[in-house]
Write a structure and sequence with these properties.
The complex is a heterodimer. Chain A is mainly beta. Chain A contains no helices and eleven strands. Chain B is mostly beta strands. The model of chain B has no long low-confidence stretch (mean pLDDT 94). The chains are: A mainly beta, B mainly beta.
Chain lengths: 111, 112
């Protein structure tokens, strides 16, 4: 069983502060890592897909890094805003057609 | 461009009833997936398809069936509904196994 672990489970951050959270995965057979943003009552929305060790992706105030050798990815949010409140899902592809999802980090921004 | 369309959005079933959750996409994606989301459990893969005529089981396929007669459509069938199938169901599609998924809006199913 290939587990994708996310930490922390939940996080409260003051508006304007920066934050980050982690996705850990087994590095054997790794093919790709996805990050999704999932707002309450909506469906998950793709943020990034990364495949290579050292990859860094950025979208506005959100960025992500990937370390495939040690099996982790960080998602960073700079200057948090209330609209960043959501669950952030990490998922990995281990060389087949399926994604294995983590259970997510629930982020709440406090105004 | 509609993306991934799921119907219905909500449904209440009685134990033993059957139903089909519809999923259609207009992006010409070969890969399609059905997930269920249970509280605190994350997304679990039920079935997936890599192209028309091809389907395969995911982690939790028991109690479900799928078909993929066209590239666009990937319906999920529940034959004998059980309370354990109460969940939120998401359909998703992608153009390759490394591409980001596009998700439908979900179907909230309650079996009583």
């Amino acid at each position: 069983i290939l587990n994708v672990e996310q930490s922390p489970q939940s996080l409260h951050v003051q508006e304007g502060d920066s934050t980050n959270f982690t996705c850990s995965f087994p590095s054997s057979n790794f093919y790709a890592l996805h990050w999704y943003r999932w707002e309450t009552a909506k469906s998950p929305e793709a943020l990034f897909v990364m495949t290579l060790n050292g990859d860094e992706k950025k979208k506005g105030r959100i960025s992500a890094t990937l370390n495939t050798k040690e099996g982790y990815s960080y998602l960073y949010i700079k200057g948090s805003q209330p609209e960043d409140s959501a669950t952030y899902l990490c998922a990995c592809n281990f060389g087949n057609e399926k994604l294995t999802f983590g259970t997510g980090t629930r982020l709440t921004i406090i105004p | 461009n509609a993306g991934v369309t799921q119907t219905p959005k909500f449904r209440i079933l009685k134990i033993g009833q059957s139903m089909t959750l519809q999923c259609t996409q207009d992006m010409n994606h070969n890969y399609m997936y059905w997930y269920r989301q249970d509280p605190g459990m994350g997304l679990k893969l039920i079935y997936y398809s890599v192209g028309a005529g091809i389907t395969d089981k995911g982690e939790v396929p028991n109690g479900y069936n799928v078909s993929r007669s066209t590239t666009e459509d990937f319906p999920l069938r529940l034959e004998l509904a059980a309370p354990s199938q109460t969940s939120v169901y998401f359909c998703a599609s992608s153009y390759s196994r490394a591409a980001g998924y596009t998700f439908g809006s979900g179907t909230r199913l309650t079996v009583v």
